[in-house]
């Protein structure tokens, strides 16, 4: 069904008109996760041809009055720091485009797993697990053979060597330590996830950590306050919409492209029209929530 919707929005010209008119004076943030090299080459080439790709820090500089934003500006982001992201490096170098990858600081450089990708059983129950408070989620995961500090035989995330190699071309930022649902955490855990992640990435890799991507797109007023106190300059959501020079820097909007498998899907999702229609019909489960405590 989705494939038909993508084709209708593309071949009727709606997505093209949306891109050329609605997006023209907006800043669009796009979210990817775990693209293959072939998909990345196709998708990033398309975006480079049809948009002006800018860095996240370029956007923040424009907000501060330093420099101007081009028309159809796009910020490309990847969440988590998946192993496959290393295969993006030669493509990014070839195209000469800025990309931001948000890292889970206690998972990269280890053989720890992303909890939501640990096993097929976990994947089947992932939505129920996200709805639990953090301690309940971790207890349930223990019964499913997962501990967030456990080292496994295989790795799922970027290695320290890969991050060191990529950091001259890639803007690495924070995605918490272990990717919990922050509003489901108590105050102590939320602060640790936000503050310690910044400290780990700066001390381990010499990075300038100024941005936080809220895991799963979930955030609360408390998490925003902690991020500000920790010295972050912005927070990235998965709330659908565009940004401009007056956007709330700790509620920056972003469209999930979901590692699009075709140009038609990418064209429609990158324009933003698909998510705006979808979320008007069905309220997403993620986003702003009151904190647990």
Structure description:
Strand 3, helix 5 and strand 4 (about 100-105) form a beta-alpha-beta unit. Helix content is about 40%, strand content about 10%. The protein has helices at about 1-10, 15-20, 35-50, 55-65, 90-95, 120-125, 125-130, 135-145, 160-165, 185-205, 220-230, 265-270, 275-280, and strands at about 25-30, 50-55, 75-80, 100-105, 170-175, 210-215, 235, 255. It starts with a helix and ends in a 12-residue tail after the last helix. The protein is globular, with a radius of gyration of 18 Å. The chain is built from 13 helices and 8 strands. With about 290 residues, it is α/β, with parallel strands linked by helices.
Summary, kept brief:
The chain is of the alpha/beta class and 293 residues long.
Rg calc: 18 Å
Total helices: the number is 13
Number of domains: 1
**CATH level-3 fold name:** TIM Barrel
Total number of strands: 8
Q: Say what oligomer this is.
A: single chain
The CATH H-level homologous superfamily: Glycoside hydrolase/deacetylase
Overall morphology? globular
Helix share, percent:
40-55%
Order of helices and strands: HHEHEHEHEHHHHEHEHEEHH
Keywords:
293 residues; TIM Barrel; two-stranded parallel ribbon; 42% helix
Describe how the helices and strands are arranged.
Blueprint: H1 2-11, H2 14-22, E1 27-32, H3 37-50, E2 52-53, H4 56-63, E3 73-80, H5 89-95, E4 100-103, H6 120-124, H7 126-131, H8 134-143, H9 160-166, E5 171-174, H10 187-205, E6 211-213, H11 221-230, E7 234-236, E8 255-256, H12 263-271, H13 273-281
Parallel strand pairs: 1-3, 1-8, 2-3, 3-4, 4-5, 6-7
Helix pairs in contact: 1-12, 2-12, 3-12, 10-11
